Amino acid sequence: MDYIFEKVRQPERLGVCLDTAHFFAAGYDIRKPKGWDTAIDEVEKMIGLDQVLAFHLNDSKTDLDSRVDRHDHIGHGLIGKNAFKHIVNDARFADTPACLETPKSPDLHEDVENLNTLRSLRKKGRAKKKRT
After folding, report:
1. What predicted TM-score, i.e. pTM, was given to this entire model?
2. How do the pLDDT tens digits run along the chain, 132 residues long?
């Protein structure tokens, strides 16, 4: 990722979307806050958090470090519901948009369920912290 940023003339014009299942499949154990912080610290060192423009939130059907990207519904995969509690409450990304990248049926009822799950994990009145 940092290689691309180093090779362009205006890296400040680039941005990334971080994907929870991709982190997990790449070997970042984001199930615990320490693992999440380690992954995010690495992103910060490589490109800076200002370049994180969005998230894809999804659980994983495949195990840690599998190198296989198979998305699952929030709390139904191997990342697990508890992991999303610290992810959705990370004040560094309070204003960063996210979208669900989970399996869909024609009526999209899964999106409603996944959003309800994520909303139930958000702390009430959590402080927003701007990134510097």
Report:
1. 0.87
2. 677 878 888 878 889 999 999 999 999 999 999 999 999 999 999 999 999 999 999 999 999 999 999 999 999 999 999 999 999 999 999 999 999 999 999 999 999 999 999 999 999 865 555 554
What residues does each domain of the chain span? 2-121
Alpha-carbon gap, residue 79 to 62, rounded angstroms: 9
Give the CATH number of domain 2-121: 3.20.20.150
Closest CA to 87 of 116, 61, 110, 59: 59
Max CA separation in the chain (angstroms)? 44
Q: Which helix (H) or strand (E) holds 57?
A: strand 52-57
Q: Are 1 and 17 in contact (CB under 8 A)?
A: no
What is each CA distance from 8 to 3, 13, 44, 47, in whole angstroms? 9, 9, 18, 13
Nearest to 88 by CA among 27, 33, 44: 33
Residue 128: which residues within 8 A CB-CB, separation 6 or more? 91, 94, 95
